[in-house]
């Protein structure tokens, strides 16, 4: 290893001394009898003197001659361990002296309390499980650089307890979504992540190639059309927590690879999806986080149902001062908002741009925005009251879209017309082919249904009170950069 720091050199010397003593610094399995957090939190006087086995990473070491205290961290918390030269013997106590912060060890001993009342494992044996040859970043007080934290998530999880807790809460929240839907009679399914024709959304896909079949395939932009095929087949309540891929930009609210929850209910509609999503989000927030009120940036958000319902045309007129179907008025407002080439853009694109630059930024508490223009939703049933409008809603919260739902279109002839119309307007980079297999299945009969897509990562931003997707996705997409590897390894 070239250009190693003095800290790393010292650790490598200790590693060599361990091996000279016949100690494997990268040991095998170590069965734990307790995790650190539960051992400390549930400790009772009845446990005093009980033999326990704990394992984890050393995050603090305090040596006092023939006595050494250390903080042992695992993913549940920390427990103090005590090494006494008299108790473990001279030879093993020498090994204690070769330990560094960041080393992973297993300790067996008796549990009890010190004179200061701290729950402690009084070590009788020590097993070195992994010698860390680099020091932890920033002198173990936390990895603070946001770029470095996202790029080297393992260091972030080690150094920042909050990051570990958020990662565990992410798992709990997703499990909560699954549990809620299961209780409502929905079943979880899996659909293809590689598709011959990417459908279900208007987005630019990633392209890959299958060598054996010699065909191009696309990473899915949505599982929607496959889930609807299951409706056609008679599966009446289905959901998928899925990874979607869209070859688009990166921002605080967008990552090209993201997690979506999609739900479909035969014989439902957009109204039933409203009831489902507000109850589901509130239930998960209450059960996992213990509350319904959250701080998001400068805003306080209340998830308590029922959420307000607003029609798209009304709220566009209120916040953007635009009449929905007045083309000249729309172009005027788009120009005022700085939309490029407003006179040349399709009116649907202008509606979307004006909405995002006005209404979307103003809605903080969860709000249902209903009855969007039908042309914006080619998979959605039109409103019987006004065919220019759709039976659709978006949930806006904290200045972004959290969820999107329809009364699903189940007329195959109308669906074909909508697909053709969508292809005529398609952006460069999208795939211009009709999904004839899906249309054929629709022609065999698809029940009326309600469908919902909810951005799981965005929901996590709200529940974990983070204003960037980077903070709730363990491994966000980042531009390759090796310049920070050495700085992460050598800081100390």
Structural overview:
This protein is α+β, with helices and mostly antiparallel strands. The chain has helices at 6-20, 36-41, 85-88, 90-96, 146-151, 153-159, 161-183, 224-232, 270-289, 312-320, 327-336, 347-357, 359-362, 412-424, 436-443, 456-463, 483-490; strands at residues 51-64, 67-74, 77-84, 104-113, 119-130, 187-188, 194-195, 207-210, 215-219, 237-245, 257-266, 293-296, 299-302, 309-311, 367-370, 392-397, 400-407, 449-455. An 8-stranded mixed beta sheet has the order 6-10-11-18-17-16-15-14, with helices on both faces. Strand 16 (392-397) and strand 17 (400-407) form a beta hairpin. The radius of gyration is 28 Å and the shape is elongated. It starts with 5 loop residues before the first helix and ends with a helix. Residues 488-492 have low confidence and may be disordered.
Mean pLDDT: 91
**What is the global morphology?**
elongated
Per DSSP E runs of 2 or more residues, the count of β-strands stands at 18
Uncertain spans, ≥5 residues at pLDDT below 50?
A: 488-492
Q: What is the rounded distance between the termini?
A: 18 Å
State which percent range the strand residues make up: 15-25%
Discrete helix count: 17
The biggest beta sheet is recorded as:
8 strands, mixed
Protein structure class: alpha+beta
Radius of gyration based on Cα positions: 28 Å
- The spatial strand order of the largest sheet comes to 6-10-11-18-17-16-15-14
Give the helix proportion (percent range): 25-40%
């Amino acid at each position: 290893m070239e250009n190693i720091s003095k800290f790393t050199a010292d650790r490598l010397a200790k590693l060599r001394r361990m091996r000279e003593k016949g100690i494997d610094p990268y040991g095998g399995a170590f069965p734990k009898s307790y995790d650190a957090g539960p051992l400390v939190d549930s400790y009772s006087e009845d446990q005093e003197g009980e033999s326990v086995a704990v394992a984890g990473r050393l995050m603090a070491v305090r040596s006092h001659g023939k006595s050494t205290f250390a903080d042992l961290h695992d993913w549940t918390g920390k427990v103090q361990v005590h090494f006494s030269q008299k108790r473990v013997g001279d030879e093993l106590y020498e090994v204690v002296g070769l330990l560094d912060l960041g080393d992973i060890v297993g300790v067996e001993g008796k549990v009890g309390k010190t004179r200061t009342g701290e729950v402690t494992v009084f070590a009788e044996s020590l097993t070195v499980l992994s010698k860390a040859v680099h020091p932890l970043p920033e002198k173990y007080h936390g990895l603070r650089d946001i770029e470095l934290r996202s790029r080297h998530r393992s260091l972030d999880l080690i150094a920042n307890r909050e990051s570990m807790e958020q990662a565990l809460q992410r798992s709990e929240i997703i499990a909560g979504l699954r549990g809620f839907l299961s209780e409502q009679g929905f079943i979880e399914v899996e659909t293809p992540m590689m598709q011959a024709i990417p459908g279900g959304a208007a987005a630019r896909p990633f392209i890959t190639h299958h060598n054996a079949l010699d065909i191009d395939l696309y990473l899915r932009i949505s599982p929607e059309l496959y889930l609807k095929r299951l409706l056609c087949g008679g599966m009446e309540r289905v959901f998928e927590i899925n990874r979607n891929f869209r070859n688009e930009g990166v921002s605080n609210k967008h990552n090209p690879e993201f997690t979506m929850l999609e739900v479909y209910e035969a014989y439902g509609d957009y109204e039933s999806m409203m009831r489902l999503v507000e109850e589901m989000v509130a239930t998960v927030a209450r059960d996992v986080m213990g509350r319904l009120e959250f701080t998001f940036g400068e805003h306080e958000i209340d998830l308590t149902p029922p959420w307000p319902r607003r029609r798209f045309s009304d709220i566009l007129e209120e916040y953007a001062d635009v009449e929905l179907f007045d083309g000249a008025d729309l172009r005027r407002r788009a120009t005022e908002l700085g939309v490029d080439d407003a006179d040349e853009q399709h009116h649907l694109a202008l509606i979307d741009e004006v909405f995002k630059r006005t209404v979307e930024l103003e809605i903080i508490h969860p709000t249902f925005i209903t009855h969007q223009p039908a042309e914006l939703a080619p998979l959605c049933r039109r409103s019987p009251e006004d065919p220019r409008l759709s039976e659709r809603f978006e949930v806006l919260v904290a200045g972004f879209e959290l969820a999107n739902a329809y009364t699903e279109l189940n007329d195959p002839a109308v669906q074909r017309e909508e697909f053709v119309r969508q292809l005529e307007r398609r952006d460069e980079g999208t795939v211009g082919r009709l999904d004839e297999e899906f249309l054929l299945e629709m022609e065999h009969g698809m029940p009326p249904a309600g469908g919902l897509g909810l951005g799981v990562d965005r929901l996590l931003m709200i529940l974990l009170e983070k204003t960037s997707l980077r903070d709730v996705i363990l491994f966000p997409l980042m531009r390759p950069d090796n310049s920070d590897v050495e700085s992460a390894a050598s800081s100390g």
